[in-house]
Design goal:
Layout: H1 31-34, H2 37-42, H3 48-52, H4 59-71, H5 78-81, H6 92-97, E1 126-130, E2 133-137, H7 164-176, E3 182-186, H8 195-206, E4 213-217, H9 220-223, H10 230-238, E5 242-246, H11 256-267, E6 272-278, H12 286-298, E7 302-308, H13 322-332, E8 343-348, E9 353-357, E10 362-365, E11 369-373, E12 379-383, H14 405-411, H15 423-434
Parallel strand pairs: 2-3, 3-4, 4-5, 5-6, 6-7, 7-8
Antiparallel strand pairs: 1-2, 8-9, 10-11, 11-12
Helix pairs in contact: 8-10, 12-13
Bound molecules: pyridoxal-5'-phosphate and iron/sulfur cluster.
Length: about 450
């Protein structure tokens, strides 16, 4: 009988008393090794050949997948791999971590950098888009390469961390820009750096007086939770206030190990927020998002954003319509804890940044009354406060008012916004200049 490598690898189970599930290529791993992030890093699955040892991949498919991984590298930690149910062809954990031919073949749509992060980089690796905060890419390495990654383009640069020289340029920029009060340390995955490197970055940022908070963007609690060890926690505690944003996408990722990692972070004074990416075939159903977010609350993690999947080349098969996100938001509000409801945001192409989207709850606004609807569909007339001439709260100093034209519409400074090149306006102007009466 013909056998295929990995035939006996299906299905994966976690038997009592053993740490690695049956079917993984490390049946003899000790609990100690499994819980050591260095062991996890050095035993990552990084090639299609490795994969073929785990699950059945027809030769032709393996060849196609190798073409994909030539461009978009493969890397999965044994831990994350152990969450996959290989007997399910649509497994949501596999979909995020195992390459698919769709990433490369027939992936003409999309751009490598639709959010134009590179164009908003005053120094390489640092994106300064919003007035008071900036984002640093400190490494291109990730312990697990998410197939849906928005920054897939940087994988081609190799699995390298930024050098001290490159980092020093970023720090110098932040030092020169006193308006920056929030620095996001991201990547790649910054927590894959050695702890002393993490400390060096945090320490350098803390030396800049106007940096109030540091945010770490990392998927380590989800894909390599054992990385959140005592040594790292001590460093994070030392350089606080530090906030950590992670990315749980499916309730099955909220394991005992992941919960423990979040618990450790909290004990070190680091609040953990979650940024889910809305992904077709992974979590594009209100019930999955509700379950995920309520599980996260139990782990004391706050759902912060639900991201629309970006129009990055090779991610088309992950994209949903905007209406899907709205439908999910509609299904959450009122039906579960407000704490479990994130903001649904779309980062628009061209560097326009994040735009929040929500169902319409305002039906009409009048002088005395506003008509609203609630989550049950009940329509309510809400009595507005009357202007009694009393002044609003005073402040000593304030952010400057937005200088955008929509704000000027609200203040009455301008009456209409007219797109450049509007033909009707051009016609008016021509008539005006030629002095002919309007007809
Ligand atoms: C998302 C993002 C931020 C942070 O945005 P918040 O809404 O404050 O979480 C900052 N800079 C860049 C370039 C971003 O993409
Ligand atoms: S951890 Fe973040 S940067 Fe790394 S591959 Fe996943 S989404 Fe991309």
């Amino acid at each position: 009988m013909e056998t295929h490598p990995g035939d006996d690898a299906v299905p994966l189970r976690r038997p009592k008393g053993r740490t690695a599930p049956v079917g993984l290529p490390w049946p003899q791993v000790s609990r100690e090794q499994w819980n050591d992030y260095r062991w996890q890093l050095s035993h990552r699955i990084t090639s299609v050949d490795d994969l073929a040892g785990l699950c059945r991949i027809p030769a032709e498919e393996a060849q196609r997948l190798s073409r994909v991984t030539d461009i978009y590298r493969l890397g999965v930690t044994p831990y994350f791999l152990s969450l996959i149910r290989f007997d399910d062809p649509d497994d949501p954990i596999a979909r995020q971590s195992i390459p698919s031919a769709e990433e490369y073949f027939g992936a003409e749509d999309g751009e490598d950098d639709p959010l134009e992060e590179e164009k908003d980089m005053p120094v390489p690796g640092l994106t300064h888009r919003y007035p008071d905060r900036c984002l640093m890419v400190v490494t291109n390495f990730c312990s697990m390469y998410c197939r849906h990654c928005t920054r897939k383009r940087i994988w081609a640069l190799g699995e390298a961390a930024k050098t001290e020289f490159e980092l020093s340029k970023m720090f110098a920029y932040i030092r020169r820009h006193e308006e920056i009060r929030d620095v996001i340390v991201s990547g790649g995955d910054p927590l894959t750096l050695p702890t002393d490197r993490v400390e060096y970055i945090l320490k350098s940022l803390r030396k800049i007086p106007h940096v109030e908070i540091i945010r770490i963007g990392t998927r380590v609690p989800v894909v390599l939770p054992m990385r959140i060890d005592d040594e790292l926690c001590a460093v994070l505690e030392k350089y606080g206030p530090i906030w950590l944003n992670t990315q749980f996408n499916h309730p099955r990722e909220v394991t005992a190990e992941a919960r423990q990692a979040c618990e450790r972070l909290l004990r070190a004074g680091v609040p953990v927020n979650n940024q889910t990416v809305l992904l077709k075939g992974v979590n594009d159903h209100a019930e999955i998002i509700r379950k995920l977010n309520t599980e996260l609350l139990r782990a004391k993690v706050r759902p912060y954003y639900l991201f629309q999947c970006d129009m990055v080349r090779g991610l088309n098969h992950f994209r949903t319509r905007l209406s899907k996100g709205i439908q999910i938001m509609e299904a959450l509000r009122g039906l579960t804890s407000g704490l479990a409801i994130p903001s649904y945001v779309v980062d628009v192409p061209g560097g326009g940044g994040k735009i929040p989207l929500m169902p319409n709850y305002i039906l009409s606004m009048g002088e005395d009354r506003t008509v609203l609807r609630n989550y049950e569909g009940i329509i309510v007339s809400y009595e507005e406060a009357r202007d009694d001439g009393r002044p609003s709260a005073r402040v000593d100093s304030a952010l400057p008012p937005p200088r955008n034209d929509v704000y000027r519409l609200l203040t009455g400074e301008v009456r209409a916004l007219i797109p450049a090149g509007n033909e009707r306006m051009a016609r008016r102007k021509r008539r005006c200049e030629s002095g002919s009466p309007s007809t």
